[in-house]
Amino acid sequence: MPKSKLNTTDISDLLSFGKSKAKSHPNESRKAIKLAWKLSQKFRKRLTQAQKRTFCNKCFTYYIPALTATVRVGKSRVAYHCLHCKTITKYPYKREQKAKRNI
């Protein structure tokens, strides 16, 4: 693909395809998510924070709680434990807690 032809919608389409195939065909889902990640790296298009947190950074498995990942909520973080590659990824959520208090 030429650089001018790649849109962020192409990447989001691949991610949504990976989401739709996550339960029935997990290998196809991983391939689509990995391709979206590689395209974003090659063409220097950033994934949004929400897009980054939907899949495992190591094996590109789409997170589905209790099926492909376990989710634990702590005081200031959310921990995702990937059941495919056994990786634990922790994300902070202080900003969300602070915004909730200010409402």
Describe this structure as you would to a colleague.
The chain is α+β, with helices and mostly antiparallel strands and 103 residues long. The chain has one domain (3-101). It is built from four helices and three strands. Helix 1 packs antiparallel against helix 2. The longest helix is centred in the N-terminal third of the chain and has 17 residues, at 26-42. The protein starts with 7 loop residues before the first helix and ends with a helix.
Number of strands: 3
Number of helices: 4
Structural class category: alpha+beta
Name the poorly predicted regions: none
* Rg over C-alpha atoms, rounded to the nearest angstrom: 15 Å
Distance between the termini: 46 Å
Instruction: Report the average pLDDT across residues.
Output: 90
Shape annotation: globular
Proportion of helical residues: 40-55%
Q: In percent, how much strand structure appears in the residues?
A: 15-25%
Q: Biggest sheet: strands, sense, closure?
A: 3 strands, antiparallel
Read across the widest sheet, the strand sequence of neighbours is 1-2-3
Order of helices and strands: HHHEEEH
User: What is the number of independent domains?
Assistant: 1
What brief labels describe this structure?
single chain, 103 residues, alpha+beta, 3-stranded antiparallel beta sheet, 4 helices, 3 strands, globular
Tell me the layout of helices and strands.
Elements: H1 8-20, H2 26-42, H3 49-52, E1 69-73, E2 77-82, E3 88-92, H4 94-101
Antiparallel strand pairs: 1-2, 2-3
Helix pairs in contact: 1-2
Please provide a brief summary of the model:
The protein has 103 residues and is an alpha+beta fold. Helix content is 41%, strand content 16%.
